[in-house]
Design brief:
globular, Sulfurtransferase, 142 residues, four-stranded parallel β-sheet
Length: 142
């Protein structure tokens, strides 16, 4: 039996998503009540900053914090399976898999940000400045 590598898995999972560019995600948050969810780990957020208004949820808590039926969901998740959720990681890889995991919970409009936080910042979209002493954190997406 042939098993897919991560590249094939990522391509397959992305085929089920309507991924958004940074400007599309910003417009969706502003005009469509989309929830931006930052799953980057703390060191990356401290180094690079935050997207204003994004809900910060570490990847290992994502499903519990966004499941509309879970007692541990974040208040921003509400009891709403129809809300557009845009998952943001550092470069747009881990977020694709995370968005597909949200699909499995019934959040059928979950998607991710093409290029992740790095693409958001490069597009000149608003970023809350990082903490000054976190500049030496190495770059990584996962």
């Amino acid at each position: 039996m042939s098993r897919p590598g991560i590249d094939a898995l990522l391509e397959r999972e992305r085929s089920h998503l309507h991924r958004l560019t940074p400007h599309q995600a910003a417009d969706a948050a502003a005009l469509q009540d989309a929830l931006l969810v930052d799953i980057r780990y703390a060191a990356l957020r401290d180094r690079d900053g935050l997207i204003p208004g994004a809900l910060v949820v570490e990847r290992n808590e994502l499903e519990w914090r966004l499941d509309p039926l879970c007692d541990y969901r974040a208040p921003e998740a509400r009891h709403d399976h129809d809300r557009l959720v845009v998952v943001v990681c550092n470069e747009g890889y881990a977020s694709s898999l995370a968005a597909r995991s949200l699909h499995a919970l019934g959040l059928h409009r979950a998607t991710d940000l093409i290029g992740g936080f790095q693409a958001w910042a490069a597009a000149g979209l608003p970023v809350i400045s990082p903490t000054p002493d976190a500049a030496d954190v190495p770059r990584a997406d996962v």
